[in-house]
Amino acid sequence: MRSKQQKAEDPAQTFKDEFNSFKETFSQSFGHMSKDIAKDMSGALTRVDEKVGVFNKQVEALNKSQDNFSRILSGVKTYGTLAEFGLGALLKDLLPSSQFIANAKMKDDTSETVEFAIKLQDVLLPIDSHWPVEKYKAIDDAYNANNKEAQAEARKDLAAAFRLKAKTVHAKYIAPPKSTDFAIVYVPTEGLFSELSSYRDPKTKELLLQELRTKYKVTVSGPNTLSALLQSYHLGFQTLKVQQHACLLYTSPSPRDRTRSRMPSSA
Fold this sequence. Notes:
Layout: H1 2-74, H2 82-94, E1 100-105, E2 113-120, E3 123-129, H3 133-144, H4 148-173, E4 183-186, H5 190-198, H6 208-216, E5 218-221, H7 223-251, H8 255-262
Parallel strand pairs: 3-4, 4-5
Antiparallel strand pairs: 1-2, 2-3
Helix pairs in contact: 2-7, 3-4
């Protein structure tokens, strides 16, 4: 009787044993899986930390570059300026290297040199750049602050800076007959050129650019106006070369004429 009951209980015991075995196996598998997941997560977090570190270094480098650029814009001129580099690049793009000179000495009695001089046949056209960033920025700051009084004062200061520049260029670099009787001051942005073009003296109502041309023989040019001017000069050079070549061909005797001139006279 007992053996029969024991046989009847065997399936239950078997199920219990199988369940415990499955539970133990599951626990072991879950434990291994948890370790793998933790390992993967740890590796992923490590990679994220590395990427964040690289990103922070890039941001730091960018900030340093921005600081350096700001110092270039607001710093005192040492060896050239960003405006001078831009002027040089513009000249190289639009004119052959034989048609302009860098750091040209315009007067024999001084060591002063103009940044560039364009060759116009037998004379030189002096070109100097000017970019008073802080004075120009003061106008923008006053405009953003909606301070009309500060804006008027800042525009006045900018005009005064260009009057001084024009006076200096006139005194140092305009030297006929070696140079033309006028010079160019280059400004590297169209925004600055537009500001200067629209400025009128509060008292005389004369446009600033007209005043500089009349009083100091200085023309202010932005990138677009200078590009057009240089292209017209270059076209003029090419036209002049064609005319000179045609004149030589017209005045030179032909081979047949030269042969005739060498023949003895029949007389």
